[in-house]
């Protein structure tokens, strides 16, 4: 009799394991798959914040940003466009300058050496082929450090 209970216990444990394992493989209709087809993904968003005040008072522009449905990383090329969730980089342009640079990390954007006065920074989410997916503009006024420092005699 003990032998029968032991076999039933082993069989019950095996059945419980199979139910748990099979349940993990069954589709969960309440949750999306780990990787969505790109057409099914929500549009990427870029949220840029105003420059940090304390560094700006010293003439250093630090722009923090975050993205939604998009990861910023140093990846380029046509095959990377097909990666899901979306990946890419930022294009950063200061004022109406004809040049731009690629910002390839989620670190803040840091600028030093702009002339005193008003400036506009255009931040664009770009896919690995440089197609623009979203854009934000941050306005900043760099103080004139020569006139803002107290005079020393």
Summarize the structure in words.
This protein starts with a helix and ends in a 5-residue tail after the last helix. It has helices spanning 2-25, 53-57, 145-148, and strands at residues 45-48, 60-63, 65-68, 71-72, 87-94, 101-103, 109-112, 117-126, 132-142. The protein has one domain (41-148): Sandwich (Immunoglobulin-like), CATH 2.60.40.10. The protein is of the alpha+beta class and 153 residues long. The longest helix is centred in the N-terminal third of the chain and has 24 residues, at 2-25. Strands 4, 5, 6, 8 and 9 form a 5-stranded mixed beta sheet that branches. It has a two-stranded antiparallel ribbon with strand order 1-3. Mean pLDDT is 80; it is low at 2-24.
E-strand count: 9
The level of helicity is 10-25%
Unreliable segments (pLDDT under 50, ≥5 consecutive)? 2-24
Tell me the radius of gyration: 27 Å
The CATH architecture can be given as Sandwich
- Biggest beta sheet attributes: 5 strands, mixed
Q: Could you report the average pLDDT, rounded to the nearest whole number? A: 80
Shape: elongated
The CATH class, by name, is: Mainly Beta
Order of helices and strands: HEHEEEEEEEEH
Structural class: alpha+beta
Fourth-level CATH superfamily: Immunoglobulins
Total separate domains = 1
Output the number of helix runs: 3
Summarize the structure.
By secondary structure, this protein is α+β, with helices and mostly antiparallel strands. The protein has helices spanning 2-25, 53-57, 145-148, and strands at 45-48, 60-63, 65-68, 71-72, 87-94, 101-103, 109-112, 117-126, 132-142.
């Amino acid at each position: 009799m003990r032998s029968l209970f032991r076999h039933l216990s082993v069989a019950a444990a095996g059945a419980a394991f199979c139910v748990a394992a099979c349940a993990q493989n069954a589709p969960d209709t309440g949750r999306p798959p780990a990787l969505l087809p790109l057409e099914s993904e929500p549009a990427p968003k870029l949220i840029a914040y105003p420059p940090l005040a304390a560094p700006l008072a010293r003439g250093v522009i630090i722009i923090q940003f975050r993205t939604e449905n998009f990861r910023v990383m140093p990846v380029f090329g046509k095959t990377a466009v097909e990666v899901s969730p979306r990946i890419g980089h930022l294009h950063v342009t200061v004022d109406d300058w004809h040049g731009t640079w690629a910002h390839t990390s989620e670190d803040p954007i840091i600028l030093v050496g702009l002339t005193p006065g008003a400036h506009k920074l255009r931040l664009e989410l770009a896919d690995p082929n440089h197609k623009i997916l979203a854009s934000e503009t941050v306005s900043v006024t760099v103080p004139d450090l020569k006139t803002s420092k107290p005079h020393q005699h």
